[in-house]
Automatic annotation (TrEMBL):
InterPro entries: MnmM_MeTrfase, SAM-dependent_MTases_sf
Pfam families listed in its UniProt record: rRNA_methylase
Protein name: SAM-dependent methyltransferase
Length: 187
């Protein structure tokens, strides 16, 4: 069976992440991706996870403790646009993930936005290792979602092919704006 965009995002990350790596969850939410990344990097690796909502940090903290992977994660209660101030310039990253949109069953007004997402992408690309990947799962059915999708699409299309490979993945015959996945790989 074909994988959902969410599941495929994990497949793409798993292919490149090894124990000891440093990685980023740019949109922590309930911590599903954070916990997945923490398991992959193990105790010798590290995960930086960002969110603007206190509730996200609390939910993620709980999930990480229950899964026994709290130690290797730094939970940052700030927007991902601050990545450049939190992650040192010399730190190289193997991978990062974004789930763009709003947190399901939470405040639908708190959404990721084109300008701040773009700023985060710039900081991540500057720190990405060769063969490293940035995966974005873009939900765009809500107000403001189309503008963010357009930014991501445009940003990805303009990345020079000598330096990056970029793919998209989406079910094109599904109703209700199924998410679109983008994966940027540094050559
Ligand atoms: C689609 S949800 C993420 C779901 C998450 N991956 C999970 O496993 O539950 C998007 C999240 O982005 C967060 N967010 C919104 N603006 C942000 C920003 N500037 N920086 C970081 N996170 C942001 C929201 O608070 C929300 O929790």
């Amino acid at each position: 069976m074909l994988q959902t965009a969410m599941r495929y995002s994990h497949t793409l990350l798993k292919e490149v992440i090894q124990a000891g790596d440093t990685v980023v969850d740019a949109t922590m939410g309930n911590g599903n991706d954070t916990a997945f990344l923490a398991q992959l990097v193990g105790l010798n690796g590290s995960v930086y996870a960002f969110d603007v909502q206190e509730q996200a940090l609390q939910n993620t903290e709980k999930k990480l403790v229950e899964s026994g992977v709290r130690e290797q994660v730094r939970l940052v209660h700030q927007g991902h646009e601050t990545i450049a101030t939190i992650i040192p310039k010399e730190t190289t990253l193997r991978a990062a993930i974004f789930n763009l949109g709003y947190l399901p069953k939470s405040d639908k007004q708190i959404i990721t936005k084109p300008d701040t997402t773009k700023q985060a992408l710039g900081a991540l690309l500057a720190r990405l290792e060769s063969k490293g990947r940035i995966v974005l799962v873009v939900y765009y059915g809500h107000t403001g979602g189309e503008a963010e999708l357009a930014m991501v699409q445009n940003y990805c299309q303009q990345l020079p092919q000598e330096e990056y490979s970029v793919l998209t993945y989406q079910f094109i015959n599904q109703k209700n704006n199924p998410p679109i996945l983008f994966c940027i790989e540094k050559k």
